[in-house]
Structure of AAA family ATPase:
Amino acid sequence: MLTVLAVENYRSLRHLIVPLTPLTAVTGANGSGKSSLYRVLRLLAEFASNGAVAALAREGGLDSTLWAGPGRPADGTPVALRVGFAADDFGYAADLGIPAPADSLFDRDPEIKAEAVWSGPMLRPATVLTERAGPVVRVRTGRRWNTVPHTLRSFDSMLGELSDPSRAPDLLSVRDRVRGWRFYDRLRTDAGAPARAPQIGTRTVRLGHDGADLAAALQTIREIGDAVELDAAVDKAFPGSRVEVAAHAGRFTVRLHQPGLRRPLEAAELSDGTLRYLLVVAALLTPRPPELLVLDEPETSLHPELMSALADLIVTASAHTQVIVVTHAAALLTAFAREERASVLELRKDDGRSYLAGQGLLDEPPWAWPMR
């Protein structure tokens, strides 16, 4: 389980060390930094696929994402962008910066200056397993350090680039675990949403990011997952209703049977809120739970009466997978506040800087960054 998320100089997140629990809800006013914190998690996941530099480019480049408020050098010298996390048994952090001027059209691409993977909850010299400074990577073997005979390019992460298990087994373990994280912020419910149309069906233990394979995911839960929990989740949200998956010529579609209706509603007829709820059900009741599942405003389009059912789903899922929820919904926050394994974190903003409400410097989890 992740215990700490750390970031420096990313948009409004000048300096933030966030404690995490099995179920963490992040809330706050519009513009307080919630979306930025969500993006930090996605950025960390991109390092495992060697896509962090490209991800920053899609956001407008490092110049656009770096903190631009008080504390940044007045001469325009860019500060470092740092992101990292710690878990019960390992941690990872990366330090990115603007490269030195060069004769290249890519001279504004950020460089990965330093990376580290360590054992235990905190980075210390004695806990470092693999470290990268510039292009050089060193791996600890017992009490000895061995330099990996493969220099990295400035835009390549050691987490995504090195693939020799004999040289960096701990690195590969971390990479594989991070690649298993799941994010849901693009589940489509509009009139043209792919989940509303019949789709080729195959066993689906992981709902796709846009929800196109909803029907296959629900049928997979019914056949090899918890069908009882699936039926209970639908009945609690829509009393007396049940969901089924119909198949024709290999294409699957969702149907919802409701009391009083002589025929089931087809996926194309479902309201945005009903479809959204079924998508979240498919994500949370996955037969193959990930280590970490992150939801961005799952309450979007949902009727207030569905909040209790949604909260129960999320709380139940947090018993076997760590869940982070970014939400505005007061009903969800109230429900989470009653749970022992849950925490509610409120972000606020002052002078352009996001901070965690109620957290002083002495309240921060212990954290250290790798050296360049």
Q: What stands out?
A: The first strand starts at residue 2 and ends at 10. The chain has two domains: 2-20+43-180+348-363, 187-289. The mean pLDDT is 92.
